[in-house]
Design brief:
There is one protein chain. With about 300 residues, the chain is mainly α. The chain has eleven helices and no strands. α4 runs antiparallel to α5, α5 packs across α7 and α10 runs antiparallel to α11. The radius of gyration is 29 Å and the shape is flat.
Length: about 300
Amino acid sequence: MTATATESTALYDIPGPKTRQRHRMYGVLSTAVILGLIGWLLYLLFDTDQFTYTKWMPFEYKGIQELLLRGLGNTLKAFAMAAVLSLALGTVLATGRLSDHGPVRWISTLLVEFFRAMPVLVMIFFIFVALKVQPLPALVAGLTLYNGSVLAEVFRSGVNSVERGQREAAFALGMRKTQVMTYVLVPQAVRSMLPTIISQLVVALKDTSLGYLITYEEFLHAGKLIASNLDYDLPFIPVVMVIAPIYIGMCMLLSWFAQWVSRREQRSPKTEAVDVATAEPGTLLPGGGPPTAPRL
């Protein structure tokens, strides 16, 4: 047995032959269970005639394709508007919660806690029905209020997570609070906040599907129109099999974008390590060498 195989780490011991065999058996069993579930689902789909030509025929028509593309475009438009406004609102509310002025901090806290506690669907319906706003602005406003309040807490916690010494050192250099936030705290907090921000934007993207409840013609609304068509034998499952991968793909693109931004930040010259010259002995005072004790 080699030295590498006998070494152990501080967290766990290197598994022995019996343990590795047991792990392989667990892997085989898990794979068999997953394949069995997939086979069972395919059997149910074929048994209920979900792959018949009649159910998939709608996707051949240009009008149906244009309906789906128009719905997808409306979904992306609503998401883009809600994402930008949510980030802006989150920044404003987080700045208010971090303010040194008591009334500003209290009002910002009240708004954040209220909009976080309210169900997003209730806010969308209230804006659409009570305020009589058009479907797109009502959907965007509801998503902005909810996701913006959540992002405000993400921003606040991210800034507060930066080591306290960074803030104290910046103030000791004579920097104002705005400069400390802009040049010291926020750039360091962005790295830790980025995964949570992207996760919340994914939530906003999925919540755009609530627009079909207020007659906004987004992607899910287009799918619902196709799935409820009696002429094609109610192709509900085929519609789900077409729409779901597109939603999943958009969410994966957001995650990929977050990883790309993170890698780019790590390669940025502002964040890369800088070589510092080795300190060499030299005179400490302009007049000569280091001070010595006076002779008696």
